[in-house]
DNA sequence: CTGAAAGCGCTTACAG
DNA sequence: CTGAAAGCGCTTACAG
């Protein structure tokens, strides 16, 4: 007997029907366990299917049934452990509802509509806004997005599950103040002209403390040497397209560390954009002999699974990213299944204490 | 005019044909830019398509064309930065050949055949072996796998791109010896009875040095207190199913660090299973006041993108994971497109020096 | 209990 | 240059 190989054609219900001497309808009913089939025939069909290693053709089934029970997480940065956590949260929630979560990190949106899924989860506000702009007119595929509290004009309103970074940053400042810190700096990967909620919250709050020296304490990584207008122009050119730049937060953390040392800051604490950037920053500070938290305290956002694979363990302000992932998956599946949904839901924000903040109250 | 909404049916080529007063064939030709269509009609069709935001139905196209030009990377552990790097390598290579790489980390294989792709890349030897066992009989979907030099009986021979960890471990020992180390320990996540190439290479090489004290220097994390036979039995029960255990290499690294301190080792260096485990181990050693590399040197495998987001920067023996990813994608696409392929290809292994190894030769 | 038929949305060779 | 027809692999209501 010739064994099947890659060169053979895949076996179909029609082939089995011929071998069993019945019609495809009967084969379908037998295989799907639906409708009537004579016992003997059913046995025969099942054993033929097994013998020839029949597997259904998912594309045909999807076309026929209109649903694939698969959803997509579109997110270009899987280096960031926060996104990995989001993804695992989605997988778990979706599995409970019979859905599979595919992931794609392609360089751009070009082929996102080619992926055969019932709906899409976008990783952030900006992607949501671009997606809406690009596809808003033919908006049939259900879409939801993770949000981080950044202002983006969405042509069409995409439902979001929000981790409000403005509030989180306020909480970070409060936490540091409670621990006796007054001069609190900020390190982020974007220029101060960006509409990032974290950066805006810090500027709004710390302007009172630093006055016109505010930006001496702002470690915005891009183009920090340019004036604000120039900075904005350059920024738009290469950043507004979120596909153009690969996010290397580690690198940006290193640059922030270098700036901190160069400027010989009198800040006792830095709020860092996210865990990934904080890891890069702390490692680089340590390389230069700066001790965390003894010389400078660090707080960051996200609370990723990698917090305690670093020393010292980061103090984080965050949500549980897995929970955000679960919420997103359920929101999307609800939308797909035409259930009632809330367009905006906010996640509770918590402080996750680590070892990267020094309590200065103890210092008499 | 009523705007389209999620509740409307998606517009099809048939709808456009009706509006334009032509047949679907003409619409197809116009949209696909193939065959003859009268200029005026073509214009009309294109503008109708635009107006109504027509997008082709990917499922129907795939069914008709037999190819989706999408491939799948199946890998359950995206926490491991090595796999993330593999994935990015695949994306780049695939993009050049017009393919999209989807990713899935589902809990098991159950629905892997439902995903509508032209082929699958499996993340390691064991997955390859299980996949072959489970689906070997109906082997129509092209499959390739990343290999790490571990012995697994593959019922059907799946083409591999290999990072030979046996050789890598020998290289690690050589490197450490060149740097004046003699007592070289090993820390891995699996018991010594596992067929892991790294562990076997270390045992084969270091047995001469440690003699019957060999296992005092083996920080195999599972069941280390059990005898080898008991260990093997328990191990099989919960590990042989690679879906049953979530790989928490960070945690295992922590446990290894605790064992190192507990046993008060006289090893001057540890070879660690992979970067992720090394990160967890080093952080924990630092928490307990052990200095790396001053008190103990560390070498690991993989060479992931996160090496220098930690202090000290890891010394790695590795391949370029992005390159391995590229090779895998190209291998799979070659197979899909029925080109000639090599069933086994080995990657060149290199030493990537960091700051985690002390040169003891300098110590007179 | 069974099978012919229509249909999911698309493509493409072929007769006009 | 055009359109009816067959087909990709499956499902399901319906007449027997």
TrEMBL record, chains A, B:
Entry-linked Gene3D superfamilies: 3.40.50.2300, lambda repressor-like DNA-binding domains (1.10.260.40)
GO molecular function: DNA-binding transcription factor activity; transcription cis-regulatory region binding
Keywords, ordered alphabetically: DNA-binding, Transcription, Transcription regulation
Record PROSITE patterns: HTH_LACI_2
Domain HTH lacI-type: residue ranges: 11-65
Pfam families, A to Z: LacI (PF00356), Peripla_BP_3 (PF13377)
Protein name: LacI family transcriptional regulator
């Amino acid at each position: 007997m010739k064994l099947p190989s890659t060169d053979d054609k895949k076996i179909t219900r029609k082939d089995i029907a011929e071998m069993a001497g019945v019609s495809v309808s009967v084969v379908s009913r037998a295989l799907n366990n639906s409708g009537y089939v004579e016992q003997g025939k059913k046995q025969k069909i099942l054993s033929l299917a097994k013998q020839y290693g029949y597997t259904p053709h998912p594309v045909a089934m999807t076309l026929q049934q209109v649903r694939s029970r698969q959803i997509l997480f579109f997110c270009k940065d899987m280096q960031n452990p926060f996104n990995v956590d989001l993804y695992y949260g989605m997988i778990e929630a979706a599995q409970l509802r019979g859905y599979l979560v595919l992931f794609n990190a392609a360089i751009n949106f070009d082929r996102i509509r080619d992926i055969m899924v019932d709906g899409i989860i976008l990783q952030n506000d900006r992607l949501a806004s671009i997606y809406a702009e690009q596809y808003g007119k033919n908006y049939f595929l259900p879409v939801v997005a993770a949000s981080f509290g950044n202002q983006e004009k969405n042509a069409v309103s995409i439902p979001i599950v929000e981790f409000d970074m403005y509030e989180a940053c306020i909480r970070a400042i409060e936490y540091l103040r409670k621990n006796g810190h007054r001069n609190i700096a900020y390190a982020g990967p974007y220029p101060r002209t960006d509409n990032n909620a974290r950066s805006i919250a810090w500027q709004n709050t710390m302007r009172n403390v630093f006055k016109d020296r505010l930006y001496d304490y702002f470690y915005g990584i891009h183009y920090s040497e340019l004036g604000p207008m120039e900075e904005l122009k350059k920024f738009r050119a290469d950043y507004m397209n979120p596909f153009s730049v690969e996010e290397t937060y580690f690198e940006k953390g290193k640059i922030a560390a270098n700036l901190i040392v160069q400027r010989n800051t009198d800040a006792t604490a830095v709020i860092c954009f996210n865990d990934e950037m904080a890891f890069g920053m702390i490692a680089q500070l340590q390389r230069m002999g700066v001790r965390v938290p003894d010389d400078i305290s660090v707080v960051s956002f996200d609370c990723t699974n990698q917090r305690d694979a670093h020393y010292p363990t980061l103090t984080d302000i965050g949500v549980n990213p897995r929970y955000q992932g679960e919420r997103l998956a359920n929101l999307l599946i609800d939308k797909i299944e035409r259930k009632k949904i809330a367009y905006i839901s906010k996640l509770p924000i918590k402080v996750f204490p680590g070892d990267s903040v020094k309590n200065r109250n103890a210092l008499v």
